[in-house]
Amino acid sequence: MSAKTLLKGGHVVDPSQGLDEILDVLLADGIVASIGKGISAPENAEVIDCSSLIVSPGLIDVHVHLREPGEEHKETIATGAQAAVAGGFTAICAMPNTDPPIDNPAAVGFVVAEGRKVQAARVYPVGCISVQRAGESLAPIGEMVDAGAVAITDDGNPVMNSGLMRLALEYAQAFEIPVVDHPEDLGLSGGRHMNESVISTRLGLAGKPNAAEEVHIARDLLLAELTDGQIHLQHVSTQFGVELIRQAKARGVRVTAEASPHHLVLTEAAVEGYNTDAKMNPPLRTADDMAAVRAGLADGSLDVIATDHAPHHYDEKEAAFEDAPNGLVGLETAVGIIMTNIVGEGVIDVVTMIDRMSCGPARAFGLSGGTLSEGAAADVTVIDPRLQWTVDPSAFQSRSRNTPFAGRELTGAPHRTIVGGRTVWAR
Amino acid sequence: MATSPIPALGKDLVGLEFLSQEQILTILDTAEPFKEISERRIKKVPVLRGKTIVNLFLEASTRTRVSFEFAEKRLSADTVNISVAGSSVIKGETLLDTARNLEAMRIDMVVMRHGSSGAAQFLADRIPSNVINAGDGRHEHPTQGLLDLLTMRDHYDRIKGLKVCIVGDILHSRVARSNIYGLFKLGAAVGVCAPRTLLPSGISDLGVNVFRRIEEAIEWADVLNVLRLQFERMKDGYVPSLREYNRIWGVTTQRLDSAPQDLLILHPGPMNRGVEIDSDVADGPHSVILNQVTNGVAVRMAVLYLLAGGQPDSAEAAKAEAEV
Q1: Which of A74, A169, A366, B150 has the fewest C-beta atoms lying within 10 Å of its C-beta?
Q2: What are the tens digits of pLDDT across the range A256-284?
Q3: Separation CA A390–CA A396 (nearest Å)
Q4: Of the residues A308, A355, A379, A384, which is catalytic?
Q5: B134: exposed, middle or buried (C-beta count within 10 Å: 0-12, 13-18, 19+)?
Q6: Which residue in chain A is spatially nearest to B202 when comparing CA positions?
């Protein structure tokens, strides 16, 4: 394989440099060598015609469940990293709620090593906040960072103890990593299965009120303000949750936050008929909530689009609704869903989409990437904005198939994924 | 003229929410001739002879299971009972695998009680046998709703225009939901009365009147359908104590006596005497609680008959044939 690649004549969208025009990008020796108009191909360079394609800094998904170790029947680090590049992502952050959890430097090292073996997306481990994710005492955060962890979270669980959350926000500052929280007050939501509304009442399913999420968003924002800590809030799904973050940002609180594709395009109505593929946590909410998440994404209150890719084996979802696990696979549908339903419906433009899927995630988690500036790692996503396709879970690279988007017709898809100058996936 | 008969109910009875008024009335009307069978010396007709029915009870039940079993036996079906304790479910078998294994033995119907809402629909969508929901989580208990309707109709000769208040733990109650859907379909007004902790979110969006105090409900209603207060609800903190529940929310003679009208009293059982209902009300002149139990068998016979392909207008004849 050539060590030099020239991406010729693509529509380069790189919000980190304010680029939104037809340019050539030369990748050499794993970095962006130059970017500009009319770059001539060096000797031995592979030239890729990118006319009518979008060339962007590599997409980054900061919220991915890879299930390894412990649940390799659902996903492995290898299959997850392959699914990532097939979805246009050059880097992913692996959540630590595995079995055993990633709560020590050796476990972090395992994820790093397995990720390197795959030669697909970069895999960044996220370590636990607390030992065993039990919410009682801090995990060895410094050692985990030394081993490669880029953030800490007890995701899957919230940190219920506010005192522990305060300590995490303070302790993590030495390492300049965000404390990542799954905001949910289990006292209000535990043992419940969908959004609380007349639909949950009709279906006879115990509902989770918006307040279950908002109570913890408010708490986390107050603690971040108290400690001057850096908080990252996952999968914000409620109207008032978005508003709380907007207000906190205006006060200067160091907060970043995610929107998930499913909360941007689906409502609780998708649960009708006990559709277990529409069971997720936080649950799909109302149309008003969805509109608020869209508005938050557009105005920057929500910095990041993250999939919360959550693979489950088909027979775990093939169960009565209350008995089915939460989550959906998202890596391979995110670009198509966002292009079709968020960019396509005018919620944001392509520049903002690339910001929220590449630059924003890099900023939030302090990752290299999120830019095509000269000298940066040559992580590039090439997107075909006009490709029409139908979601076919049987074609997923992921080991799991659980998606409420099966059969959905989309416009726009990843075309080529380049990591460190090397094409790791192409349509 | 012989036209091919249209199934009156479709393949399954999962709930009352998506039945039409006509379908509900068909079941109630079909139950009428079946009532009499249970009064005979020989309580058996050959309507379901050769049919195999599995009673799959994956959650504790006595009344409903026995009622279904009598209904099946009185229609001459062959029945097998499976309950949690004796089933492979406790060995970790999935619901779908349990059902597929039963299917492989060539059954005709499954009557299922399950702790998860939507379990009956789940099964109905995946196996060709008729599925009858005998209660799924807090979703629906359609035959209980139907027997409640039949009992009210017996007393008033109509449902339309009746004011029916469901009292108690609406939040966790499949009986409440089936009652609400069935009563609305037949033109009744429906109220609910419970501590706010036991009312589900958005209940008033279903069109019910919400009463905060039992006195207001009694003043309004023609019928009280009093739900059981499970002891676990107190443990989980929904109500402070059983004593307080009885004092504030209990259906007592004193409260009923202060009402200007006579109220009909229903209870799906099993009762907690002295908690949600006082003994002198349960045993009093306005209680039709045992009529409900009797009607339960007739309603379930009607449902079994109709799902097996029986025609509503042949029910009398099918029954008469047996007397030969």
Answers
A1: A366
A2: 999 999 999 999 999 999 999 999 999 99
A3: 12
A4: A308
A5: buried
A6: A198
